[in-house]
Amino acid sequence: MPPPATAPNAGPVVQAVVLTSGRSGADSGLRALLDAIAASAISPERVVVLDTTAATAGSGAADVVASVQSPTFAVTHERLDPGMPDRAAVASWLATADLADDELLWLLPVGSIPEPQTLGRLLAAHRRSPSVGLVGPKHVDATNPRTLRSVGINTTRTGRVVEDPPLGEPDQGQYDLRRDVLAIPLAGMLASAKLLRELGGWEPSFGDLGGDLDLGWRAQLAGQRVVVAPDARMRSVASVGLATATTGARRRAARRVALTRASWWQAPFLALWILTTTLAAAVGLLLLKRPRPAAEAFADLGSLNPVRGVLSRVRTRGRRVVRHRDIATLFVPASAIVRTGLDRAYEALVAPATLADEDTSEPEDRALISRGALHPGVLAVVATLAVVAAAGREIGGGLLSRFGSGVTGGELITTRATSNSLWHAAFDGWHGTGLGGDGPASPSLALLAIPTWIVEHLPGSGDLTSPAGAVVGALIVLALPLAALSAYVSARVLGAPRTVRALAALAWATTGAAGASVAQGRLGALVALILLPIVLAGVVLLARPSGTATGAFATALGAAVLGAFAPPLLVLVVLVCLGVALFGHPGSRRLVLVPAFLAPLLLGPWLADVVDNWTLAATGPGLSQWGGTSAEPLALALLHPGGAGSVPWWVGAIVVALGLAGLLASTSIRSASTGAALIALVSLAAALAAPHLDLIADSASVAGQSGPVTPWAGTFILPLTLALLTSAVIGVGSLRERRRLSGVAVLALSLSALVGAGALGWFGFGASLRTWTDPRPAVAVEQAAGELGNRTVFVTPGPSGAAYRIVGRETGSLARSLPQSVANDTVIASDVSQLLDGTRSDSGPKLAQHAIGFVAVAQNAGADVARRLDSAQGLSRLASRDGYDIWRIAALGNAANRPVSPTRLAVLNDGDPSLVATTGEHGATDTTVTARKGDVLTVAEPPAWASHATVEIDGRELAATADADRPTYALPVGTHTLTIDVTTDYPWWRALQGLALAIVAFLSVPFGTRASRRRR
Asked: pLDDT tens for residues 135-189?
């Protein structure tokens, strides 16, 4: 216990200045404060109440003052302008009050209650040394006096206010040795009238905390010490005794104080330091994924306003007795700030360790290693792998060859695709197989380029025939096991037991459209099987009050990836998010809108393609039904999409029955069960309508497609199946308290999962898929990928004429979606036809002009066609391969240095070509050429290619020759650097898309503890 205060023998007059702080209805606080003053062991000689409240009849501060009776001091009432700030009120009263220079003022705002010994101990501290100018008490919480609020104002040299002690820290006397501080709060301050007048009072532009900091700083520079008396306690409410920058305005004001009090030559360097450290702190907070504190840090840059700083310096200029370095010990060192920041970062990132005897972990986490072999989730994945192995017995080729070369058949289109070719196919303005075109490209190509690049850099990947095909082949094999894993993990949001989740995951991976997705090579559906449970689980989490910003961005990123492969399901996810925002709990509406709007925006320029052609949003890679008949409506309602890999309808009927039974367990309209029911209804309606929506009704002749092309109904059976399984899981969980019914429900779910898995393994995927092999001879592959960059045309005669396709080094979509325009490829139609029927002898050289170096004709074309090609000009037969007879086309020209085969790029001199190396897709290159007078560069691409490419010689762009049958450019004489780039459509949009994806991906990664993420 501190010693009791002793009465002073003699000394200056003490006048208590009570401030009403402009609070209306503060009569009770004023009365309590006056009672506390009257109860002080040492009373002031006078008390003046500075009333800044609005005057009201019959009540107010004046009535309280009139009712106060004290034998030890007189109470007077002074009315000032209503709403005047406390510091301005003191300054205004000081300017007119008749006060002696040595008279002491004890400033007491309403909301502060001094303890009986407070004034005596403040006077003792003031008389301890003649250099003491300002004395302040220790502030404790008014409702809990055992906790601290402030013991002086502490700041760094740059004006960063330090919360020391932290608000709410227990008062155990740990700060009772503190004496000299830089500044003290207004509440409880004891100061002489002379000092306050000499300092000119408080600078109003700095506000409350900044004004107190500035006053104490100026007092120190004037040679007057500022001390705190920790044994003098004052109970204060939250708005009184401020020593912490609780708002952005207070933080900026403290920074301006530091700039104002610095020497004129130090101020620019200090401002630069504040700018640097503030930006570093803001960027660090962003890296720590603390967006709100980062925004507050960026807002602190407003303290660098030079105009306000100069005006404040002019208004508060005064006599300086002490140098800045003499008060350096009063500032908090920068090392303390660094340590505090590191400690807070550690607390945010690392969860507190649990003691050895604390049993807080879930059984699932404890048994992950010791009982992993019997873990229900592991068993579900292993069972799915076994089903895939059994169901894929009829797929041609071995399992390892599917990983090495890829799979073709069904909806898959496999080529020698690399990450580079996929990237260019996704972003180049002129792209695609054959002679190319400028149509829309699926955003899935860019996403597939990422795992393809990883595969290319794995040890032993040099032997891969098609790296992208290897990725698709791996997806064919692993899609269903990964779907089971994602469903098992995602079902945690439903709070179901592990066994129930595992059974639902097995059912998800083996029933509905899952088997058909694999058997028919529907690439978009394979990705949807993995991502759809995760994305919808993210929406469920966002619909709860515990949702986080990290979850919102992760869900948006997952939905964007889902939309790149399965656009119709992105539309469904957006509708679900909007439904939750409209009808869900109020606390979840803001976060759930993030994926609803952000996910489509992340797809970038593809949205512009959708605006031009809405059918792009109705299908995706492998999600179209080409010319075939779909299942009956009843079969679709029973989760049977039809075609290879579809399990019998009665398997889906079990899942439908379980889902409908689970709906009966719903107890609230705002529940996951209700959401699942709505998703099921929307998905069922879409599945039934899909076979009737012809996506090429207005362009039936595109790509020679004679039948309708509709959305695949299985795309919508996927969310229908997931919604039914979700309803079933919820129903099982609701029966936990009723053991008998719960056992029956689990048995029914087990039956559904096992029957589905057994049916898929028994009926299998069929034989529509097979391991892919390149039908071109090795020399054709080498020339296509090398400097020549030529092409091969494959011809397949049919009853209505010969069909052909052009294969080069370029890559298109890896699965069929909508029919692509072949208008550019038709330029060689007459040449191919005349070559086959022998009506034109120069058909071979004509094809060579389009960089076609090889012709492959199906062997069923007949012996007559083979004889004609054997005798055709410029053609020489090669060995047959994979059912095709193959001929090689000679290069054009008669010069001795002509290329060995037709080339993509060539320099023509009097009709004789010389090779120009091709290094990229569709004629892109960066090489050196030597030209003579009259030489021209020819590019074996359609004329429209020139509007999507730039051709530069030594950095100077060339213009294409008008009316040429292929892009032609006149070359200047000499040796030059030739650069040909196929430009990217919407380059700025693409750059912003990449930046947005990087930011969202960063924000999606869980960082720190979950509790810290909720506080962001």
From this structure: 999 999 999 999 999 999 999 999 999 988 888 899 999 999 988 999 999 999 9
Diameter of the chain by CA atoms? 132
610 vs 447, 599, 615, 633, 896, CA distance in Å? 19, 15, 7, 29, 52
Omega cis (within 30) before 82 = no
Token pair listed for 485: 């894993």
- Burial code of 510-519, b = ≥16 C-beta within 10 A, e = fewer? bbbbbbbbbb
CA–CA separation, 754 and 230 (whole Å): 74
**pLDDT surpassing 70 at residue 371:** no
Contact 138, 229 (CB under 8 A): yes
Q: Which residues pair with 147 in a beta bridge?
A: 170
Contacts of 32 (CB under 8 A, 6+ apart): 113
| 232, two tokens | 């003098």
Alpha helix positions (H), 850-963: 863-871
Residues in the chain: 1016
Distance of alpha carbon 297 from alpha carbon 309, whole angstroms: 19
Residue 241 has φ and ψ, to the nearest 5°, of 75, 35
Buried b (16+ CB within 10 A) or exposed e, 821-845: ebebbeebeebbbbbbeeeeeebbb
Residue with tokens 């509007």: 947
- Bin 532: left if φ > 0, else alpha if -120 < ψ < 50, else beta: alpha
Q: DSSP letter for 584, please.
A: S
**Contact between 551 and 591 (Cβ < 8 Å):** yes
Count of CB atoms situated within 10 Å of the CB of 82:
13
Which residues 6+ apart lie within 8 Å of 804 measured at CB? Answer: 793, 794, 795, 796, 825, 828, 829, 832
Tell me: the pLDDT tens digits for 419-474? 999 999 999 999 999 899 988 999 999 999 999 999 998 887 777 888 998 899 88
Whether 395 shows a pLDDT value over 90: the answer reads: no
3-state SS, residue 520: coil
| Predicted pLDDT of residue 246 | 83
- Which residues lie below 8 Å from residue 121, measured CB to CB, with a gap of 6+? 2, 5, 137, 229, 231, 232
CA separation for the pair 365, 361 (Å, rounded):
7
Would you state the pLDDT for residue 12?
84
**Residue 6 confidence (pLDDT) above 70:** no
Distance of alpha carbon 278 from alpha carbon 300, whole angstroms: 7
Residues 6+ apart with CB under 8 A from 455: 461, 464, 467, 470, 471
Instruction: Quick: pLDDT tens for 642-682.
Output: 888 899 999 989 999 998 888 876 665 567 888 899 999 99
Strand partners, 877: 887
Query: Which pair of structure tokens corresponds to residue 613?
Result: 């052609």
Cα 311 to the center of its chain, rounded Å: 44
What is the number of helices (H) and of strands (E) in the chain? 35, 28
352 — pLDDT class (breaks 50, 70, 90): low
Q: What is the DSSP letter of 881?
A: B
- Nearest C-alpha neighbor of 801 from the set 839, 847, 842, 834: 834
The Cα–Cα gap between 640 and 646 comes to 6
CA–CA separation, 185 and 599 (whole Å): 50
| Cβ within 8 Å of residue 699, ≥6 positions away | 819
Give exposure, 149-177, as e/b (b: 16+ Cβ within 10 Å).
Answer: bbbbbbbbbbbbbbebbeeeeebeeebee
Helix (H, G, I), strand (E, B) or coil at 556: helix
**Tens digit of pLDDT for each residue in 61-79?**
788 887 776 777 888 889 8
User: Rounded to an integer, what distance in angstroms lies between the CA atom of residue 891 and that of residue 900?
Assistant: 6
Helix-strand-coil split of the chain, %, nearest 5: 50, 15, 35
Q: Which DSSP state fits 59?
A: B
Q: With the C-alpha atoms ordered 191, 196, 198, 199, is the resulting torsion angle positive or negative?
A: positive
